[in-house]
């Protein structure tokens, strides 16, 4: 009898400890920053950041505006914190050369865009 009570007490302590551990429920993540701009030509930049440190950034640049071969080049990345607590970032691009994935664009910022594009985005 006493042994059973002790087991129940230990079980409850175990459950209490497990329940008090910080559980990162990704489904409860919320967007805490959200930016989006697009100009009349269709050049755009958007980004957002969530409470669970997910970041998404993408810019689209209209190439050969008004020409028959007009198209949008897309550059972007997403990043997140992996299970080991390390930040992981994946860069990608979609251009006439196809879809590419890799981290060679790590320092990509809006200042890397052609000045004409920056000017049109800033207004
Ligand atoms: C959104 O824009 C603000 C102001 O330019 C900037 O500080 C912030 O880092 C941006 N957020 C994201 C997720 O890019």
UniProtKB/TrEMBL annotation:
Cleavable signal peptide: 1-20
InterPro entries (UniProt xref): Insect_cuticle (IPR000618)
Key words of the record: Cuticle, Signal
A single GO molecular function term of this UniProt record: structural constituent of cuticle
Domain of life of the native organism: Eukaryota
Any Pfam family matching the protein: Chitin_bind_4
Name of protein: Endocuticle structural protein SgAbd-6-like
Organism of origin: Bombyx mandarina
């Amino acid at each position: 009898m006493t042994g059973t009570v002790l087991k129940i007490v230990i079980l409850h302590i175990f459950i209490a400890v497990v329940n008090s551990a910080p559980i990162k429920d990704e489904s409860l993540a919320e967007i805490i920053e959200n930016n989006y701009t697009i100009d009349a030509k269709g050049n755009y930049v958007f980004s957002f950041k969530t409470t669970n440190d997910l970041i998404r950034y993408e810019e689209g640049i209209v190439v050969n505006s008004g020409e028959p071969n007009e198209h949008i080049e897309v550059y972007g990345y997403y990043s997140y914190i992996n299970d080991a607590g390390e930040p992981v970032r994946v860069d990608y691009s979609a251009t006439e050369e196809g879809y590419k994935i890799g981290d060679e664009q790590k320092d990509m910022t809006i200042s890397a865009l052609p000045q004409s594009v920056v000017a049109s985005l800033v207004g």
